[in-house]
Amino acid sequence: MSAFDPEQLTGLAPIEARTRLTPTKVILYALGVGATELPYVYEENLLALPTMAVILGYPGFIWRDPAYKVDWRRILHAETGFTLHAPLPTEGELIGLTRFGPVLDKGPDKGAIVYQTRTVHTADGRLVATVRNANFLRGDGGRGGSGRGAPAPYALPPREPDLTHAIATAQNQALIYRLSGDLNPLHVDPIAARAAGFERPILHGLCTFGVAGRALVATVCDGDVGRVRSMDARFSSPAYPGDTLTTEIWREGAGHAGFRVKATERGVVVLNNGRLDYA
């Protein structure tokens, strides 16, 4: 396989992917992030969790395609976030357009970070969400691209959090979450997980992100999903199915909160430098 080429990647046309949204898919996503509250899992007066934005118009785990020339077994999700421009629907067709860039090269022994932006529209062209992602290509550094320009992480206050909210994940959490579209074998296959350097399959970063979203809606948004405007965070360490995920929250003035998530039993921060903007 020839070497990963950052310029080729950033020069690609946007990837178009369509999501045919149904109440069943909305419920499946909610179950994938551990929700059991009736408004998220019952089709009568169904509500979509705001973090579901990150899977809409998703082109799939594209990195396994040899055309991208990357060591896909060593890829990790580094950052994610979204901005909602309209309430998320619970049915209908949505179209995602994914663009790549910039690529930040950390060096031959350190890998590269690829940023992606996805806009999600309704079939008639109405903008619903903008989704931001960064992937850490641990095996593809030293190929070109700038090593500078990474956005500074959101700085959490140097004090105790104002709120905490603990949510237990199930041993089969990753098996459910993957049915929403992220089929990376790292989350289900013990052989693939060990090849990537993990003792066993890890929980999807976006599942952890969804659990944090549930905690934030339940606390600072008083259970109202319609108040969420944007949410961003960095993945700092893997979570495992069965972990209790405790979201620590700092109130940062009207409409803003900082947060991070710890795997309680292991004392490890798995999601960091989080920011929520809400009405």
Report the principal-axis shape. Answer: globular
Order of strands, widest sheet: 1-3-4-5-2-7-10-9-8-6
Instruction: State the secondary-structure class.
Output: alpha+beta
Characterize the quaternary organization of these chains.
single chain
The CATH topology label is Thiol Ester Dehydrase, Chain A
Through-space gap between termini:
49 Å
Beta strands, count? 10
Number of domains in the coordinates?
A: 1
Biggest sheet character = 10 strands, antiparallel
Description:
With 279 residues, the chain is α+β, with helices and mostly antiparallel strands. The chain has a single domain (6-278), classed as Hotdog Thioesterase (Thiol Ester Dehydrase, Chain A, Roll), CATH 3.10.129. 16% of the residues lie in helices and 34% in strands. The chain is built from six helices and ten strands, in the order H-E-H-H-E-E-E-E-E-H-H-H-E-E-E-E. It has a ten-stranded antiparallel beta sheet. Strand 8 and strand 9 (256-263) form a beta hairpin. It is globular and about 50 Å long. The termini are far apart.
